[in-house]
TrEMBL record, chain A:
Chain segments annotated as coiled-coil in the UniProt record: none
GO CC annotations on file: plasma membrane
Domain 4Fe-4S ferredoxin-type: 221-252, 255-284
Alphabetically ordered keywords of this record: 4Fe-4S, Electron transport, Iron, Iron-sulfur, Membrane, Metal-binding, Repeat, Transmembrane, Transmembrane helix, Transport
Molecular-function GO term, any one: metal ion binding
TM regions (residue ranges): 39-56, 86-105, 146-165, 177-195
PANTHER family: FERREDOXIN-TYPE PROTEIN NAPH
Species: Oryzomicrobium terrae
Entry protein name: Ferredoxin-type protein NapH
SUPFAM superfamilies: 4Fe-4S ferredoxins
TrEMBL record, chain B:
Regions that span the bilayer: 44-65
UniProt-recorded name of the protein: Ferredoxin-type protein NapG
Top-rank lineage group of the source organism: Bacteria
Organism of origin: Oryzomicrobium terrae
SUPFAM superfamilies noted in UniProt: 4Fe-4S ferredoxins (SSF54862)
Keyword field contains 4Fe-4S: yes
Amino acid sequence: MAVSTSAAKRLSRPGQEAVRTRGWLAAHKWLLLRRASQLTILALFLAGPWFGVWLVKGNLTSSLTLGVLPLTDPYALLQSLAAGHWPYKTALIGAAIVLAFYLLLGGRVFCSWVCPVNLITDAAAWSRRRLGLKTGKTPAEATRRWLLGATLVVSAATGSIAWEWVNPVSFFHRSLFFGWGLGWLALAAVFVYDLTVARGWCGHLCPMGAFYSLLGKTALARVTAPQRARCNDCMDCFAVCPEPQVIRPALKGSGSPVILSSDCTTCGRCVDVCGQDVFRFSHRFDQRSAS
Amino acid sequence: MADRPDMPATPDLPRAPRGGAAGTAPAPATPEQGGPASGARRRFLNGIAGAAGSACLMGLGVGLYSRQARALPALALRPPGALAEADFLAACVRCGLCVRDCPYDTLKLAPLGDAAGVGAAGTPYFSARQVPCEMCEDIPCVKACPTGALDHGLTDINQARMGLAALVDHESCLNFLGLRCDVCYRVCPVIDQAITLEKMHNPRSDRHAMLLPTVHSDHCTGCGKCEKSCVLPEAAIKVFPLALAKGKLPEHYRKGWEEKEKAGGSLIGDQLQLPARGVDTPPASPIGGAGLPSAPSHPVVPSAPPGLGGER
């Protein structure tokens, strides 16, 4: 199968057509909003240690906002339960709030709008496209779900919160808020891994992503392809999507135009890069389709 | 790799990835696959086996790593109320809320790759020599813990057992040299209970006393103020995690003097005072008598110290 050079070049910079037709800002709307969300969350955590403004204490694993709102990562708490510890009410309430939020909105909204490692993996994906790298054997997509199960088994077997020994998401936050140590090495490793293996970390390994994906079955916030008839097969959305397999059923199927897969991170990059305005942000019940 | 959606070879549609996301059509069969069903099934089974295998390997790696990492004797002193280390690691989500609520910046989160043995990465600890625990009456760090890794049942800071002080270096402790330093004793928040000064004869000068700082585990909270304040360049008194500092008597051991006090009297009754016969007259046989020491004036082993059957 011969690769046309111009197509390869275009796909190293997806979204050019959208920039031409809608302008740079509109063609990066959701990306900018997403970065704003990620950085705002980091800023809220950092305002305390850096400037003494204690709006949020703790980190992504467990935090306390304004002294009243507890939030706890349900996946970490699940491992704690597996390890044989019944947590206090505060942590349970915190986890329940987080669970409810992501069940409603879509589990992997966490991955694209909150998780700080997304900044690293997006940077790796961007570099990979620009450098035209095609290397790396991607592990099976189901690996992350098996790993999710394995971390719970290991937690039970070792009596400790297993994934926290290696979790780059925690390293990122703790390194930034409590002092670096060698945490940056783990983050560099994720970058290098994603540079050599397409979407290797978030898309195939991260059990945290797999956990939040499980919460996405009933998610309300969804991307839909109401104008899928306009699709000119330019492949920009597939090139930019962190979970490209989720697009096809909605874009090319005859059923619902809504991207219903719980692996969709609802990042909205497909909305941004599509020069034909095929996609839009909507809710899961939005069945409007021009086709 | 030609079927990866991010690397389309032709403008046609990307195929479903291995393992098959729900709702995607199976990839078209090619002649060597022997039909769509068997090809798809083989790919599916291969994918599952690969995924399960690699996940199990990674899980095993994580498990072995955590086993090995926790086996290191952590020198970390945990915050007050911390569960025993094994339970603590099941409960602590490493959020650092205890660190944030400590008003004296005593607590830190262990950084990744710290070789000093301060505990699993991300767990809270403090170094007594740098910043000891100030033993706040309201114990804010314990209250901040959302999971119970720090036991909220601890309401009296004097009941905390963060570690145990031990006067480890008798050779450089100034009081052991016969000087009056006493700083560790005087800064102790549980003075005269956790640390006492035990008066001993100074055999070197033969005319002075030595006042030896002595730690009592019944009362020592492990706050580390003694270690912090030791005037030596390297502290002679140090606080260790309980597991490192404490010895352990065998279960069946009883201390006679404690049992006696508990029972309000000797449990074995008065000892028989038998007359020492054959002491006054020299033995008839030179073989039996030559090696015998002169008879003691009292029936005890002379060299045994008090408390071990000796007499004072």
